[in-house]
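Hey, can you fold this one?
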Amino acid sequence: MANKNLRLDSRFSMIGAFWSPQKPDTIMTGTLVSDEREINFITAPEYERPISIDPGIFAMPDSTMIPALHGFTQDRLFTMCQLVEQSGPGSTNFAVGQAIKARSFRVLSCLGGMYIKRNQ
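Sure. Predicted structure:
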């Protein structure tokens, strides 16, 4: 895919590592997926044992918007813009006290091949 240009209606699935420009040492790894409707970034699943019982465990995540994440995929540099967290995939088994969780973000736009610098 490195030699292939993506179009606005392209479908793709790429693994990558991403970070906030303000916190470059905090890395999120996962998969960037595009279909005909939207672009999503799903973080790599994390295993938790024992699970912590959070009162808001069944609540939807806050819809805070992340302005931008820089990173790279298996093919190129990448910038994702305006990410909004949504309900993520996962499984919690209370009987054995274990969970597998991932975070999911809807991405408004992304740019492959470079980083977008934000003026401050």
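The first strand starts at residue 12 and ends at 20. Let me know if you want another pass with a different chain boundary.
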